[in-house]
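Hi V.,

Quick status before I head out on leave. The structure for the redesign project is tokenized and pasted below; the design run finished overnight.
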């Protein structure tokens, strides 16, 4: 693993301002081979002043690679030894350790594309606090990935989307969450929900939202963040010119375990945002179905040959 270290871009200590403009935060946990390439893309980006890596429990060889990187790359701030505290808590650790005026949260299996960070930052112009700016998430083949821009995530839209009923029945098309098949806007546009694979906050946005809700262990914390930003009178923006290639499904954890956390997170989110007794009861009643559909998704992926 350490053989990759000489290829990382390095800058002399003190080359960046005492108060960084842009910090990238990456939460790492058993990512696999994709981690190396993701790190390389971050360090090859000249706009990155600071790179905060929160290691939630890498395999020994990856943990040692990160330590070696931290010793040789002045921009890297490495936090290890706290164990797997979950993504939301890890991301909060990273956000609070970061010193930049802009904080880019990036998945460890996502590769920044040229101009991505500059486009994310420029999208904040004239936007209220808090604002969340999401990137356009691409598959390896260049197509837009499912989930990068989404509508309002509710129990009904989630179940219809999970079951692909919105695609099978034209009358239900209005309940479709995902918008990647819609025409690509030319400029940043408001979007109810963006992807957690790559998005940006200003420091004041992060502080206004008090970071992520640590009640989520893995998944849905990004949906919750977008909802809370809008509830606070802020904005969620989709920036089509900020592109990132997201590999996805690279975790060494079993897919059923990952999807279990997603199902639990969605159920928690729907219960949390229920603003009437009827919606609360509906969220509670639908929770088992949402969990079941979540953990069955890996089997459906195998049967269909593609993510659902």
């Amino acid at each position: 693993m350490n053989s990759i270290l000489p290829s990382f871009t390095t800058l002399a200590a003190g080359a960046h301002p005492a108060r960084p403009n842009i910090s990238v935060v990456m939460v790492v946990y058993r990512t696999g081979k994709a981690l190396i390439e993701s790190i390389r893309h971050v360090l090859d980006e000249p706009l990155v002043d600071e790179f905060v890596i929160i290691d939630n429990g890498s395999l020994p060889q990856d943990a040692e690679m990160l330590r070696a990187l931290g010793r040789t790359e002045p921009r890297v701030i490495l936090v290890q030894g706290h164990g797997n505290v979950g993504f939301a808590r890890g991301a909060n650790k990273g956000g609070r350790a970061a010193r930049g005026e802009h904080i880019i949260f990036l998945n460890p299996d996502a590769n920044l594309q040229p101009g991505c960070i500059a486009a994310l930052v420029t999208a904040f112009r004239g936007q209220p606090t808090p604002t969340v700016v999401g990137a356009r998430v691409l598959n390896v083949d260049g197509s837009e990935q499912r989930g990068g821009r989404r509508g309002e995530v509710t129990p009904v839209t989630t179940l219809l989307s999970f079951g692909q009923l919105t695609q099978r029945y034209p009358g239900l098309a209005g309940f479709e969450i995902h918008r990647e098949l819609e025409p690509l806007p030319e400029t940043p546009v408001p979007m109810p929900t963006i992807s957690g694979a790559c998005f940006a906050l200003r420091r004041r946005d992060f502080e206004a939202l008090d970071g992520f809700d640590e009640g989520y262990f893995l998944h849905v914390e990004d949906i919750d963040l977008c909802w809370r930003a809008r509830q606070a009178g802020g904005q969620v923006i989709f920036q089509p010119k900020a592109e990132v290639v997201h590999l996805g499904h690279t975790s060494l954890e079993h897919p059923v375990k990952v999807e279990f956390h997603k199902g639990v997170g969605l159920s928690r989110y729907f219960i949390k945002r229920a603003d009437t007794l009827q919606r609360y009861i509906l969220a509670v009643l639908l929770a088992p179905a949402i969990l079941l559909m979540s953990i069955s998704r890996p089997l459906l992926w195998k049967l269909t040959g593609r993510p659902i």
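Above is the designed sequence. The domain at 2-142+184-249 is CATH 3.90.550.10 (Spore Coat Polysaccharide Biosynthesis Protein SpsA; Chain A).

G. will cover questions while I'm gone.

Best,
W.
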